[in-house]
Amino acid sequence: SELEALDVEGDAIDVVVDAFGRHRLLTFDREISTREPTVEIAHEALLRAWGRLRTWIDDAREDLRQDRSLARAATEWRASEADDSFLLRGARLEQHETWAATTDLVIGRSERAYLKASVDHRDREGAEEDRRHKREIQFERRSSRRLRGLVVLFAGAALVTGSLTVAARHQRSRAEREARIATSRELAASAVASLEVDPELSVLLARAAIDTTRSAEGTVLPEAEEALHRAVVASRLELEVAGLGGYVAWSAAGVFVTEGPENSGVIDIRDAETGERVLAFKGHDIDLNTVAFSPDGSRLATTGDDGKLKVWDPTTGRLVASMSGPGSAWGPSFSGDGSLIASAWGDKVRVFALPTKRVLLDIPMEDGYGTALSPDGKRLAAISERSAVYDVRSGKRVFGLGGHGWALSWSPDGRYVATGGEQGVRVWDARTGKLRHTLFAHGGPIGGVAWSPDSSRLVTGGSDGTVKIWRIDPTGVTQLFSLSAHGTRSGVLGVAFSPDGTRVMAGDLSTSAVTIWDLGADGDAEWGNLPSSGEAGAKFMPDGRRVVASSNHGKAVTIWDLQTGRALERMAPSTDDFRFFSLAVNPDGGSIALGGAVPGHPFGGEVARVWDTASSEEIYSVGHKFDVNEVAFSPDGEYMVSADWNSAAKIVDRSGRVLSVLREPGFSLSAARFSSDGRFVITASFEGTNTRVKIWDWGRREVVRTIHDDVSKLWPNLDVAPSGSRFVVAGPEGAVDIWDATSGTRVAVLAGPSGGVNRAVFSPDGERVATANDDGTVRLFDADSGAEQLILRGSGCAVRDVAFSGDGKKLASTSCDGVRIWALDIDDLLQIADHEVERSLTDAECRQYLHVTGCPQGA
Questions:
Q1: pLDDT tens across 654-679, in order?
Q2: Cβ-based neighbours of 424, under 8 Å, separated by 6 or more
Q3: Which long-range contacts (CB under 8 A, 24 or more apart) does 82-88 make?
């Protein structure tokens, strides 16, 4: 009927519809209730693959919104039997009237009739008002006509002037708004471009992008919000201490050391958690060059331009030993037990025994710059014009380490020696001298290298201002992180791992800052990152502060407190090696359901189980013949449905009593959900390439409606909107569709990438849909139009599950690296972002990105 109502001459509509029908791009049917003929798109590929059509839709998106709005209003007017109270009035009428006069869309007959009726009604009211006004004028005295004419004249002039003023203000307001949008988009793009170079700057720019529109209009552009999410995830910055830098060392006692102001000779020891000074004292007469802690942190070695190698008690600053050499002293190192110490001078390298200071090795070496004693103290690596490894006892050269270098580190397990210089980073086999790996990653000279305590990772710092973390093993090298900050822009000179290996530190070349990053699970978190293992995802408890996640490879459940990041409770549900694949939390928070299987018992195992969250005791279990793929509670929490691989879905009450069994022979049930009112159960199943959804009246065990999806999703999953009759279906293949259960029609197709969707869920208000994707992203869509709103990018692991908190302000996504808790509330996200940075934009950055001469207050 909509097509027939279009004002198109001739048989153009029939020609187009018939052509598309012959090519099976449109399908023809009859509406169930009215038996009227219908036509609809047969395949979403038409919307995805026809580029010109997508361009037309994008170009006409605002026109389409206006058309739909007019169509809805016209339908309500017709349903009211043309009641005048349903007609358009005022600004709405003017808006639609202007749009209808300028749009290129063909407007349907019923819509045009409704618009004409609204205009005619307005004109009639206007004419009546004019007639009334004329009658009043006739009663006026004839002597006042001239004065009244003058008043009308001046009023008209004022009205014209006022109208022009309003129009000018409107135009100016529109121009200002468009300028703010353009500025916000530019800042968001700059924030994304800075992610690899300076995530701290990215946070500041993304925040500025949000403030640009939000402060004036209360709105936030999707590009700006996405940029801030990406910046928060990219920024692992934990601490930045200004006024320090150069070479650094991290002690097992929880402090780090660096040099004080240039040429002061001051040794500055700081608390690694707060950056507060613990101890500072003058250690050298001229400049302090390099520093090193003994492995146990009980001793501190420093070298300086005064030619001294000094050993200190770092807790008191007491001098323990002092050794001298010709020229400046560089690169001290300890053996594993701290009994030996080595250092390089301008023309030699020496090894001393402590505390006697007896010289064990004295080797001439031109331009000696650094040393690294092997953990057992038997060998010494030295970097110079001719870097090499020597035997400490005999002094013989064991093997070479290539050309000139600037950085050197022996792995704590004794297996590798890492060197850094002009040609990048090289990793050598410490036993044979064979070159194992060469890393070209900084695009310039290497300032520092250091091994993690377990010898599995290497941190490198370069003149490009970046710090990179590498995994080193016999099979190869993998770059894990690339870190940078405002405080490393001048280049990185010294690097160090924390004693537990969860953080790294860098001192910049200009001695202006020491920067510490968190490499742990929470380093790139928003609300938090939680450990998880197993195939089941994670769900929020009703209070939104606790999260239930799979643990012990799907054999246990852990409840986490988001505020503290601590595990509150751990339930090991069974002793029979039960593993679960699906997890659900009762809406009242009183119980948790798990669906899975018992290995070795594929037939008849009790594989759907429910536990009491207060006592951690099992309440009941439900027997199935095959693995349970899905468990879900009804909205009121009174019932639970469990679906298995053997085509059966069982509905039980709070006691575990089976009330109904729904069977779909020959199909594997992959999903089951209660409708929003709890009266129906919706199941998704597949058999080969055949995918279908059934809506059941579960009390009567009757199928109300069957929907055959036109694209196989292989392992379809579904979710039901919290209110209304809509549900969403997704799977590894095909588009994500939103359907209406009452009519059985597809109401929207999500605009994201086709395929690779492991889960799709509605937000608590039903306005958004979130998807978990194989490409490592979580995507959010408008549930009405299917338009993509936001992309959340994690570590890159495929996301297999996603869940909203009850208030919709948080989102949990589960992937190979655990559970990420995202902040969907913009105020929460801004608060989290503020904790990621300890500075504001500089004047130079404001000039470059904000295009102002000086930074605004608070920028």
A1: 999 999 999 988 888 889 999 999 99
A2: 438, 439, 440, 441, 442, 446
A3: 82/117, 84/121, 87/114, 87/117, 87/118, 87/121, 88/114, 88/115, 88/118
Virtual CA dihedral for 59, 62, 68, 71, nearest 10 degrees?
Answer: -110
Residue in 538, 562, 560 with CA at minimum distance from that of residue 550: 538
**Model's pTM, two decimal places?**
0.73
CA–CA gap between residue 728 and residue 670 (Å, rounded): 14
Confidence of residue 553 (pLDDT cuts 50, 70, 90): confident
Question: Contact, 617 vs 611, CB < 8 A?
Answer: yes
Map residue 482 onto helix, strand or coil.
strand
* DSSP, residue by residue, 86-148: GS--HHHHHHHHHHHHH--SPPBHHHHHHHHHHHHHHHHHHHHHHHHHHHHHHTS-GGGHHHH
* pLDDT for residue 654: 95
**The two three-digit tokens of residue 54, written as one number:** 């997508």
335, β-bridge pairs = none
Q: How far is CA 305 from CA 263, 281, 508, 627, 746, in A?
A: 9, 17, 19, 72, 77
Long-range Cβ contact pairs of 789-793 (< 8 A, separation 24 or more): 789/222, 790/222, 790/225, 790/226, 790/229, 791/226, 792/226, 792/229, 792/822, 793/229, 793/230, 793/233
Contacts of 35 (CB under 8 A, 6+ apart): none
Q: Report which of 457, 473, 363 is spatially closest to residue 409, judged by C-alpha positions.
A: 457
- Please tell me whether residue 350 adopts helix, strand or coil conformation: strand
Q: Which H or E run includes 390?
A: strand 388-391
Tokens linked to 94: 């003017």
At residue 384, the pLDDT reads 87
How buried is residue 145: exposed, middle or buried, by Cβ count under 10 Å (0-12/13-18/19+)?
exposed
The whole-angstrom separation of Cα 370 and Cα 642 is: 66
More confident position, 114 or 526? 526
Rounded to whole angstroms, the maximal C-alpha distance in the chain is 129
pLDDT(158) > 60: no
Question: Is residue 7 pLDDT above 80, yes or no?
Answer: no
For residues 509 and 522, give the distance between their C-alpha atoms in angstroms, rounded to a whole number: 28
- Confidence class of residue 1 from pLDDT cuts 50, 70 and 90? low
Summarize pLDDT for 370-395 with one digit per residue, the tens: 999 999 999 999 998 889 999 999 99
The total of other beta-carbon atoms located within 10 Å of residue 320's CB is 14
Q: How far is CA 461 from CA 55, 425, 469, 496, in A?
A: 47, 10, 9, 10
Residue 475, pLDDT above cutoff 80:
yes
Q: Say if CB 248 and CB 258 are below 8 A apart.
A: yes
Q: How far apart are CA 777 and CA 794, in angstroms?
A: 6
Distance CA(18)–CA(25), nearest Å, equals 10
Phi and psi of 102, rounded to 5°? Answer: -115, -15
Could you give the CA distance from residue 20 to residue 14 in angstroms, rounded to a whole number?
Answer: 10
- What spatial distance separates the first Cα and last Cα of the chain, rounded to whole Å? 57
Least confident of 61-65, 456-460, 517-521, 649-653: 61-65
Tokens of 568: 């509150």
**190 in Cβ contact with 223 (< 8 Å):** no
* Tens-place pLDDT, residues 287-342: 999 999 999 999 999 999 999 999 999 999 999 999 998 889 999 999 999 999 99
- What the block records as the tokens of 205 is 């720019």
Separation between Cα atoms, residue 96 and residue 68, nearest integer Å: 11
User: How many other C-beta atoms lie within 10 A of the C-beta of residue 117?
Assistant: 17
